[in-house]
Amino acid sequence: MPAFARDPGTAAYYEQRAAEYDEWYASLGRFAARPRPGWAAEVDELCRFVHALPPARTLDVACGSGFLTQHLRGYVVAVDQSPAMVALAQRRLPDGVALRGDALDLPFADDSFDRVFTGHFYGHLPPAERAAFLAEARRVARELVVVDTALRPGGTPEQQQERILNDGSRHHVFKRFLTADQLAAEIGGQPVLTGDWFVAAAASR
Question: Signal sequence: where (predicted)?
């Protein structure tokens, strides 16, 4: 099983993708013609879900461009391995801070935060990295909220995907699709969002 969080090729892909990352959410560019019924409404629902989380000292792990991060309330620290993603996220966090960081070796003391939040990161992790991430999340915060991509009817739960960027470059990433119940079981919590496109689960220690 390939690595994801520490794979140099994956790191290069997300650094290169940063400027166009939000096109996935906004159905622009290569995503404009992709048939995704109900997508826009569910993106709005997801943003409302994130905003409705109680204000807390929150660490957003693998924050990407900060598209979801910006909806978190309370004091927010965001980490990502990509400098370009960190720069984009920082612009969306006028009262928080975005930093480069290793999701599997978080540079924070035990119980530094009330909550760890992560969106569309967990589903990329192979088993060993999932275990490492969950251990780190539980170490630095008492609550964990994970958002990821829903397994759709007839969909393949696990695959190696080819990703094509606007410049035509081709990249490969490992990706899992999850039901809300499966995600909850894996993180030891409860489902908190069940949609056609997105799922979320929350766990506390």
Answer: none
